[in-house]
Amino acid sequence: MTTAKRADALRSIEAITQAAAVCLGRNPDASMSEIARAAGVGRVTLYGHFSSRAEVVDAAMTRALDEGNEVLDAVDLTGDPRLALGRYIDAGWHLVDQARSLLAAAQRELSAARILELHAGPAARVEALVARGRAEGAFRTDLPVSWMVNILHAIMHSAAEEIRGGRLTSEHAAAQITATVLAAFTPPGTPVPPAPET
């Protein structure tokens, strides 16, 4: 493949991935034809780069998570673990909220194992925070760290479902997620602290 053709192919792949993130971000049922149109390419070109809808969804989800990781890298996770958790939830929730339709598409198209793999970056960040909180006595130690991280992400994703169902508003979600997670993470027998200001 010549350098020019390779550059054209990379531009097409980038356009398709970006279009998929936008289209699926609006509608998890967006068709491959819609994505191709939004990318300015034909279906033949799209399928030349991605052999299935699942591959397109995977690429769009990977892009969204890469961008999300840049945002989460800027979150201050030092100091009181409970306050740090609140800051993480505030930033992380906005990312989940923005990508909830894309996540719905991913849950339909990708395996649970692949979705976990894609979330490895955010999961590692929370694991470190939870481990520090446990060491400092702020978080419970009778449950595995991996389970606690899973609880946090499950609650975030459940909040997205509640918003989709009209039972929760986006502006109230972060506070409710933080209050719920703090209650789950507080050591047994210890009073649950009020959700911290983020």
The helix-and-strand class reads: mainly alpha
Radius of gyration: 19 Å
- Name the shape in a single word: elongated
Query: What is the helix/strand order?
Result: HHHHHHHHHH
Q: What's the pLDDT, averaged over the residues?
A: 89
User: Multimeric state of these chains?
Assistant: single chain
> Major β-sheet, in short?
none
Q: Specify the number of helices.
A: 10
Q: Helical content, roughly?
A: over 70%
The span between the termini is 51 Å
CATH superfamily of the largest domain: Tetracycline Repressor, domain 2
The total beta strand count reads 0
Which segments are poorly predicted (pLDDT under 50) over 5 or more consecutive residues? none
CATH topology of the largest domain: Tetracycline Repressor, domain 2
Under the CATH scheme, the architecture of the largest domain is Orthogonal Bundle
Number of domains: 2
Give structural attributes.
198 residues, mainly alpha, Arc Repressor Mutant, subunit A, Tetracycline Repressor, domain 2, 2 domains, 10 helices, 0% strand, elongated
Description:
This protein has two domains: 1-51, Arc Repressor Mutant, subunit A (Orthogonal Bundle), CATH 1.10.10; 53-198, Orthogonal Bundle (Tetracycline Repressor, domain 2). 74% of the residues lie in helices and 0% in strands. It has helices spanning 3-26, 32-39, 43-49, 53-73, 81-98, 100-109, 112-118, 120-135, 145-164, 170-185. Helix 9 (145-164) packs antiparallel against helix 10. The model has no long low-confidence stretch (mean pLDDT 89).
List the helices and strands and how they pair.
Layout (H helix, E strand, L loop, with lengths): L2 H24 L5 H8 L3 H7 L3 H21 L7 H18 L1 H10 L2 H7 L1 H16 L9 H20 L5 H16 L13
